[in-house]
Amino acid sequence: MQVPAAFQYETATSLEQAIELLTRYGPEARVVAGGHSLLPMMKLRLAQPEALIDINGLGELALIRVDGHDLAVGAMVRHAELLASPVVGEHFPILRDAERVIADPLVRNRGTVGGSLCQADPSEDLSAAFSALRATLVAQGPGGRRTIGIREFFRGPYETALNEAELLVEVRVPIRSHASAYRKVERRVGDWAVVAAGAVLEIAGGVITEAGIGLTAVGAPQFVAEQAEDFLRGGRPDDEGFAEAGRIASRECRPTADQRGPVDYKRHLAGVLTTRALRAAAARAQGQEA
Amino acid sequence: MRITVTVNGEQHTRDVEPRLLLVHFLRDELGLTGTHWGCDTSNCGVCAVWLDGTPVKSCTVLAVMADGHEVRTVEGLAHGAELDPVQQGFVACHGLQCGFCTPGMMMTARWLLDHNADPSEEDIREAISGQMCRCTGYENIVRSIRWAAEHGGGARTADAAADTESAPGREEVRA
Questions:
Q1: Is residue A47 less than 8 Å (CB to CB) from chain B?
Q2: DSSP readout, A188-211?
Q3: CATH class for the domain made up of A61-174
Q4: Whole-model pTM?
Q5: Rounded to a whole number, what is the distance in Å from the CA of A232 to chain B's nearest CA?
Q6: Sheet holding A193-204, edge to edge
Q7: Which domains does chain B have, with CATH numbers?
Q8: Which of A34, A77, A198, B170 shows the greatest Cβ crowding within 10 Å of its Cβ?
Q9: Which fold has domain A8-54?
Q10: Is residue A85 less than 8 Å (CB to CB) from chain B?
Q11: Cβ–Cβ of B175/A66 closer than 8 Å?
C-alpha cells in the first residue's frame, strides 16, 4: 500500500488565510489543490511536506472570466472546466487541444490549472501551451500581488519563481486575433507526452507578426523554442517556413533519453510536431478546422 | 482529525489521520468494499467514486478533503431493491468478467448518462478512457453502457439532479 508520510493538514478558507498558513509553516509546507501530482509524489516519498494547505475551498480562485481584454483563469479551475469552457474553446484552441490529451477525464475532474503550472513538471502540457501564449501569472504573497511573465516563471524542473508563502492566483492571457494549436505524441491514451508542441500565430497582411512555440518534455528552456519563433516573425505563414521552424525547434531543444524514447527520436518528434502545430494553427487562421 | 463525510446520502463521522486516502476510508472505516483499490497511482480507475457529483479516483483524494462533502459509491447506485439501468446493462451484456473494474466503470457510466442521455460509442470510450479492465473486456463494457442508455438509463437520476443543484457554482462571466 502506498501511503504518504504523516503531515499536518490545514484547510484554507480565504486567500489571506492560505498565505498566513504558508508563512506560519514555512518552506516545509505545500499547497494542495487537485493533488494529482503532489499526492502521488507523497506516496512515493519523493515529496514529504510537513504540512498541506488545502485551497479547494477557495471558490474565488475557481473562475474562468473575461476581464477587459484578458482571459483570466483562476488557479483552482479544474482541467475539465477549462476543456468545457466555450470562451476558451473559441479564443484559445491550443488550450482545448492540450486539455483533450491531458491524462483522462477522471483526473481532469480533479487536477487544476494552477497546480499543473506550479508543479513545473517538464512533461506537463499546460506549461508549454501557456508559454506559447505568453501568459501572465498573478501571484499573491504576504506583501501583496505581483505579476510574473510565464517565460520568467519556470526556473527548472519542479522549480518556479514563486517565493515562499506566495500563491498562484490566476493565469491571464490577452484575447487577440491569433490562431493556435497543440499536437502531442503519447505512448498510450492519457500518458505523459513523449513530445508535444504548441503553436500560436498572429498573422496580418499575409505576414506573421508574432509567433509562439511551446515544447513539452524535451528540456526546452522555459518550455519554448525562441529561435524558431524569431525565424517565423516577419515571414510568410507557408509550409516551407513551418518546416524550417520545425527544424530549428528540433535543434534548439534539449531532450534526454528515458523510457519514452531516445534523444534522436524526441528531436525528430519535436520538429515534426512543431511543424504540424504551426500548420494546424495557420489552417485555423483561415477558418479551417485542422 | 475528525471528519464528517456524506456517503450515499448518509453522514459518517470518524477520526482519521490526514494521510488516509479516501478509498481506504470508504473500505476500511465504513466497510464499503464495493469501491475497489487497484494501482494506487491514479492510472487504473477501479477506485472511481463521485465527489460532489463528479467522478474522481479516490486513491488520489485524501479522506480529509471529503470532509463536509458528498460521496457516492457503487453501493449508492441501486434504487432500493431495483438495480440502476447501468447495473442492469452490465448484467444483460456480460459487462464484467472478473468484476474488479466494474464498480468504477459503472460510476463513470452513470455520470456519463446523466450528462449525455444518448452517448455514441466514441463518447463512451472517451468517458471510460481513464479506467482499465484487466480482462480487456471493453467491448462488452461499452455495450453495457449503450444498453443502459437504450433502456431508460439516460434519464437523470434523482440523486444526480440533487448533486448538481447543490454543487458549488462555477461561473463564466463576460466583464
A1: no
A2: STTPPEEEEEEEEEEEETTEEEEE
A3: alpha beta
A4: 0.93
A5: 33
A6: A179-186, A193-204, A207-216
A7: 2-76 (3.10.20.30), 85-157 (1.10.150.120)
A8: A198
A9: 3.30.43
A10: yes
A11: yes
